[in-house]
Write a structure and sequence with these properties.
- The protein is an alpha+beta fold.
- It folds into 2 domains: about 90 residues, Single Sheet (Outer membrane efflux proteins (OEP)), CATH 2.20.200; about 375 residues, Outer membrane efflux proteins (OEP), CATH 1.20.1600.10.
- About 60% of the residues lie in helices and about 10% in strands.
- It contains 12 helices and 6 strands.
- The strands form 2 sheets. It has a 4-stranded antiparallel β-sheet, with helices on one face. Strands 1-4 form a two-stranded parallel sheet.
- Strand 2 and strand 3 form a beta hairpin.
- Helix 5 packs antiparallel against helix 6.
């Protein structure tokens, strides 16, 4: 009972010292950043200021089951995303360490038993004791560390959300580009088919003596140049499939089992919901991460300031020491002590003040970085909006041009067969049609990929986490591997 009273005494002394604690350093407030009232293209009928409703924007935008499945696979297997989740886990443990520092920093239970012979006498000695040392958080030193670590944790979660946004857009863009190159390859093969027919006609007319060999040579030259473009398209197509495999956490392989039959380029919706520019600060993960890093650094300024002041410590020990084990914990064997101490690095003031200035300069840099992140985010959105709108306008014109080009090929071929025009006109229309059809197909893909970029610039998709802790989204196999490596994870990784 007496020993427990000593413990209570230590605790009471610590409470007395810490009751007047204060916190040093700046009082952090989220800084203002310049944000426009509305988008530059808000008057365009394709742009709506309504907030996006569904965080799974790719489903409402493209309605493509294959893309849906690819994204679900990537969210489960992508290694970059998994690494971001593990960084969140690291930040959680850093916060736990910072919280633990608020409590007694040195605690030790020890004991000994010795047997000694001196002058023909044998002595026994038994000792057991408990030591405690606690630096009082008089200036909020440890609370500032907790504040900083907590902000760093929030920043790591925002970085995870940023990885989600990036992954969604990369998978969607790679998939759209795969469909685009498949379509371009198909268009090229159709052009080759038309040009083979033109070569057949010019060869027949040459064999009949109706035209010179020049017509046949021109048709053959155009055909082979078009055929030569096929390997380049096939190379790009395979490289895109390889990139998609890596996004899915797989080595480069035949992706046809996931892509299925050759599909069309996804259609785009008539309008896109953009929300308001002010929403960027709440939804773009990179902005949230920059702001949380700024908050963490603000706490570091306060932590540096606390080094200018004396640090107070309290502690003590209680125990028992006796010559015979039966006498242990008797009143005569009781030993204890209490102490209070302080440390003040007066002679290091120059270096300590330099550290305060260093931390403040880092804060100012992060403040500028935060403001720049907000500006760049607005620029990203505006650039993606204008790219989407202008490519959408291009698509309408290219569709008309491609239809006219098809008609010109049919007309020129018929007129050439009837001897009404020379072969140069046919060659010109065939060459122009091949380029026009390829341009139309590429633009269809550009419209879809530009729409993906709009959603990426808005930070779309991170809410699919649905407030779950990123650590909880780690694969069960990863958690089990960590639990097997060290038992310290038991009860932490579920």
């Amino acid at each position: 009972m007496k020993l427990s009273l000593k413990v209570i005494g230590v605790a009471a002394l610590s409470a007395l010292i810490t009751s007047g604690c204060t916190m040093l350093g700046p009082d952090y407030q989220q800084p203002a950043a310049p944000v426009e009232d509305n988008w530059l293209e808000i008057d365009d009928p394709l742009v709506s200021s309504d907030p996006p409703i569904d965080p799974r924007w790719w489903q409402t935008a493209f309605h493509d089951p294959v893309l849906d499945q690819l994204i679900e696979t990537a969210l489960q297997e992508n290694l970059t995303l998994r690494s971001a989740g593990l960084r969140v886990l690291q930040s959680q443990q850093q916060l736990a360490i910072a919280i633990g520092n608020q409590y007694p920093q040195q605690q030790q239970i020890g004991g000994s038993a010795t047997r000694e012979k001196a002058n023909q006498n044998i002595f026994n000695e038994y000792n057991v004791g408990f030591n405690l040392s606690w630096e009082a958080d008089f200036w909020g030193r440890f609370r500032l560390q907790v504040e900083s670590a907590s902000a760093e944790l929030n920043a790591s979660v925002a970085d995870y959300d940023g990885a989600v946004v990036s992954l969604l857009s990369q998978v969607a863009q790679n998939y759209i580009l795969i469909r685009t190159f498949q379509a371009r390859l198909e268009v090229t093969l159709e052009s080759i088919k038309s040009q083979r027919e033109s070569l057949r006609i010019s060869t027949a007319k040459f064999n009949a003596g109706e035209v010179s060999e020049l017509d046949k040579d021109q048709a053959e030259s155009l055909l082979n140049n078009t055929i030569a473009g096929v390997p380049a398209l096939e190379t790009s197509l395979q490289q895109l499939k390889n990139a998609l495999a890596i996004l899915l956490g797989k080595p480069p392989q035949n992706m046809n089992y996931l892509l299925g039959e050759q599909g069309k380029i996804p259609d785009v919706p008539a309008t896109i919901a953009m929300g308001m520019p002010q929403n960027l600060i709440r939804q773009r993960p990179d902005i949230r991460a920059a702001e949380r890093q700024l908050a963490a650094q603000s706490a570091q300024i306060g932590f540096a300031v606390t080094a200018l002041y004396p640090h107070f410590s309290i502690g003590g020990s209680i125990g028992s020491s006796a010559m015979h084990s039966n006498d242990m914990f008797e009143s005569d064997s009781e030993i204890w002590n209490l102490f209070g101490a302080f440390q003040w690095n007066i002679l290091n003031y120059g270096r300590l003040r330099s550290n305060v200035r260093l931390q403040d300069a880092l804060f100012q840099q992060l403040l500028v970085d935060y403001q720049n992140t907000v500006l760049r985010a607005q620029g990203d959105v505006e650039n993606s909006i204008v790219a989407y709108l202008k490519s959408y306008q291009q698509l309408a014109s290219y569709e008309l041009a491609a239809a006219a080009s098809k008609r010109s090929v049919a007309v020129s071929t018929a007129q050439y067969q009837n001897g009404l025009i020379d072969f140069n006109t046919v060659i010109s229309t065939l060459n122009a049609d091949a380029q026009q059809q390829d341009l139309l197909t590429a633009t269809q893909g550009n419209v879809a990929t530009n729409l993906v970029q709009v959603y990426r610039s808005l930070g779309g998709g991170w809410r699919i986490r649905n407030n779950q802790n990123p650590v909880d989204l780690l694969p069960a196999a990863t958690k089990e591997e960590m639990r097997e490596r060290t038992g310290a994870w038991k009860g932490v990784l579920q």
